[in-house]
Amino acid sequence: MIVGVDASNLRAGGGLTHLSGLLGAADPRAQGVSRVRVWGPGDTLARLAPRPWLSLERVPALDRGLARRVLWQRRALPDLSRGCAVLFAPGGTLPPGAVPAVTMCRNMLPFEPREAWRFGPSATFARLQLLRALQLRAFARADGVIFLTEYARRAVGALLQAPPRRSVTIPHGVDDSLRDLSRHTRDIQQCTLESPLRLLYVSVISPYKHQGAVARAVALLRAEGLPLAVDFVGPAHDEAVARAFRGTLLALDPSGQALRWRGELRGEPLRAAWAEAEAAVFASSCENMPNILVEAMSAGLPVACSDRGPMPEVLGDAGRYFNPEDAPSIARALRALAADAALRASLGQRARERAGAFSWRRCAEETFGFLARVAGADAREGAPCAASPAP
Q1: Burial, 371: exposed, middle or buried (Cβ in 10 Å; 0-12, 13-18, 19+)?
Q2: What is the pLDDT of residues 337-350, one digit of tens each?
Q3: Taking a C-beta distance cutoff of 8 angstroms, is the pair 15, 9 a contact?
Q4: Domains of the chain, CATH where assigned
């Protein structure tokens, strides 16, 4: 059996991380898959490690902008995929065609209007509305849909006129390199304003991530004399958002000692940031699968966390929750963590244990198992599908 993968719109972020982790941990031959063909742009394919059963097929048109990518997906992909038993389109949209197809729900912003409207009447808001229409249509006609959390499965399912033909919940995995980080828990009396308890918030700078509210909460606590500091790590893709966030940090902490924005970190510098942190903050109000939250858990950090979306489903009782739009609520959660070293140690241990359920190997086994079931079910039901060529 041959599986085709449409990677035409996986260019960065969580989608590319998922595909890389999935294929890196997979042995699809255990599910009867002889070959996996991935069609994508050059930069995307360069991030995927070669495997004996993996064919990485660069499509030059996919390096040439959105219009060319959409045209390729609609016109060329249906013909290419006819040699496959099933087409996997993790980007959330599907081309027309008869091959059994599985897609994935990755982004909740298109399906939560209040969150989308945080971007105001903008090109981003218009794009999210278009994605909502395209993805709901894809979920309705797909032979299978993969959700990342039960929260997303319920929320998106409520928007469909009928349930997907088949669906499953398969969470992402997490980088194993964080699991072996050692932790030393300081009592708050050992901390000073010059050597504060260090918090870490890793995420793209965006209105629905509420970094400004976190900064205001830390400033409130420092004004009380509580020795806390927070590092914000992540890029800003919108210059206006970046300017506003810099202005907030400067107004609250002109010296830059307590509120630092370190920009985007990757690889060893990011691992070092996780290692240096003593607690994590995650203040997003809209997530499908909060990968960064799982990374914080895997690193063994106690987490002060947003109470929205799937966060309670993922973190469970291994953190302290807050309203991400309310700085005093965030401050209360941070104060509770800071004041109790034993609580921090206990929550960090529980978080690391819960993170053990999120592995790329499990994700790969369950994903290829679902793809094989969809392909087999459609074959039994008589769905038109060309025979796969020999590998």
Answers
A1: buried
A2: 999 999 999 999 99
A3: yes
A4: 2-173+359-380 (3.40.50.2000), 177-355 (3.40.50.2000)
